[in-house]
Structures are given as structure tokens and as C-alpha cells.
């Protein structure tokens, strides 16, 4: 999976492990919709990026994410966050992510001044 070849996940499936962050043994259940959603003029799919955003680009991220990274518990509701993309090479240097930022991840300014990362499926 990469930003140039985005994948659409179906959130109506029963919970199943999905990798979070760098992958590996980290896993979180897929959120499950309470009922079938009918698309309309005001209810649409969130479009995926067709290319990697340049550093400095302001983006809106949407997803369930983890509400407590220590417990690995996903949010019960869809969350949205406005961020500014940082340069992936800078984020991957030894001061921050030590090369853990993969091609399907975006690096952005975290709330504690250090860069944060998010995985895109």
C-alpha cells in the first residue's frame, strides 16, 4: 500500500486485526458500522489522495485511530484532524523516527512539537 496506489477498506466487515503505525505485531480491530449507510448528496465517501502530499501541504486526516496508544483501543467514532505535512526524510532521521516511516505513512507535526506519523490504508 502506498499513497500512489491507495486502497479502500470496507468498514462494515466484522472486526479483524489491521496493522497500526509501523505494522509488525501491533494490531487494532476494524471498526464496525452500526447499520448500512446509503450515500447521498450530503453523505459521501472520503476521497483518497492520488499522490503523496508535498511537505507544507495542509491536509485533513479522517479515521478511527487509537484513543489510548498504550492500550491500543480504537476510537468508537470517526475522527478528523487538520495537519501540515512534514518532509518524510526529516521525520525518518535518527532524531525522530529512525527510519520507521514507511511509504504508506504520512509525517506531520504532533501536538507535543515532535513529528507524529499515521499509516494510510
UniProtKB/TrEMBL annotation:
GO BP annotation list: proteolysis
InterPro entries, sorted: Peptidase_S1_PA, Peptidase_S1_PA_chymotrypsin, Trypsin_dom
Pfam (any one): Trypsin
The keyword Disulfide bond is assigned to this record: yes
Keywords linked to the UniProt accession: Disulfide bond
Molecular function per GO: serine-type endopeptidase activity
Residue ranges of every copy of the Peptidase S1 domain listed in the record: 32-111
Entry keyword annotation includes Disulfide bond: yes
Name of the molecule in the record: GRAM protein
Protein's organism: Prunella himalayana
Amino acid at each position: 500500500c502506498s499513497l500512489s496506489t491507495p486502497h479502500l477498506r470496507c468498514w462494515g466487515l466484522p472486526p479483524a486485526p489491521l496493522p497500526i503505525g509501523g505494522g509488525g505485531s501491533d494490531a487494532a480491530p476494524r471498526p464496525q458500522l452500526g447499520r448500512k449507510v446509503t450515500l447521498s448528496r450530503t453523505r459521501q465517501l472520503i476521497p483518497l489522495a492520488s499522490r503523496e502530499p508535498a511537505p507544507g501541504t495542509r491536509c485533513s486526516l479522517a479515521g478511527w485511530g487509537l484513543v489510548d496508544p498504550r492500550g491500543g483501543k480504537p476510537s468508537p467514532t470517526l475522527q478528523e484532524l487538520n495537519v501540515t505535512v512534514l518532509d518524510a526524510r526529516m521525520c525518518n532521521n535518527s532524531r525522530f523516527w529512525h527510519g520507521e516511516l514507511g511509504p504508506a505513512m504520512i509525517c506531520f507535526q504532533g501536538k507535543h512539537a515532535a513529528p507524529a506519523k499515521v499509516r494510510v490504508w
